[in-house]
Write a structure and sequence with these properties.
about 180 residues; alpha/beta; Rossmann fold; 7-stranded parallel sheet; 5 helices; 7 strands; globular
């Protein structure tokens, strides 16, 4: 079974208290995210890492505080989550880690994601990252629509509001998704 790991928006602006759109507790999940990425690298599993890459006057900032502006420290992924062999999409070719920059909550809005998924031809996806009820939700439900097995690593996600996250997890499992724990 070919597996692809899906690391969602683990970026400095979300992970650390000084970040522009800090997700409380996300820094406590960073070790689990890094461990999953290292596990993938050690086992030859490709990792797709989504990353917000907003412009300074991005339309999303009407709904959310400015965050992850392209080229800023806050837009970067923490070093612990980066793999040595990586590319930033839309760069051509595949690598161990493919960082897919996006401008909306839904990674499936990127014209580069579906072609990348087709190239990788996975049977199974393992999803983790931030924020459970927003970007992780879009990624997990979108991947379920591909008809493949999708697992959500509950020990490597973090939410803003537990009630909304609980609804997301219920929606995900009702659609056929599998909740799992990977451990640190």
């Amino acid at each position: 079974m070919k597996t692809v790991f899906f690391d969602v928006d683990t970026q400095i602006d979300f992970v650390f208290p000084a970040g522009a759109l800090y997700v409380p507790g996300a820094e406590k999940r960073l070790g689990a995210v890094a461990a999953l990425n290292r596990y993938a690298a050690a086992h030859g599993i490709p990792v797709i890492s989504t990353a917000d890459a907003h412009t300074e006057n991005d339309p999303e900032f009407r709904s959310w505080p400015a965050h992850c502006v392209k080229g800023t420290l806050g837009q970067r992924k923490p070093e612990a989550t980066l793999l040595e062999n990586r590319v930033i999409i839309p760069a051509p070719g595949l690598a161990q880690q493919m960082i897919l920059e996006k401008q909306t909550l839904d990674c499936f809005d990127s014209p580069h994601l579906l072609p990348l998924l087709e190239k990788l031809a996975a049977d199974r996806y393992v999803v983790y990252g931030f924020v459970t009820e927003y970007c992780v939700r879009y990624a997990a439900l979108g991947l379920l629509r591909t008809g493949r097995r999708v697992e959500l690593a509950t020990d490597a996600i973090q939410c803003l509001r537990q009630q909304d996250a609980d609804r997301t997890l219920a929606e995900f499992t009702a659609a056929g998704g599998i909740l799992t724990k990977w451990g640190q």
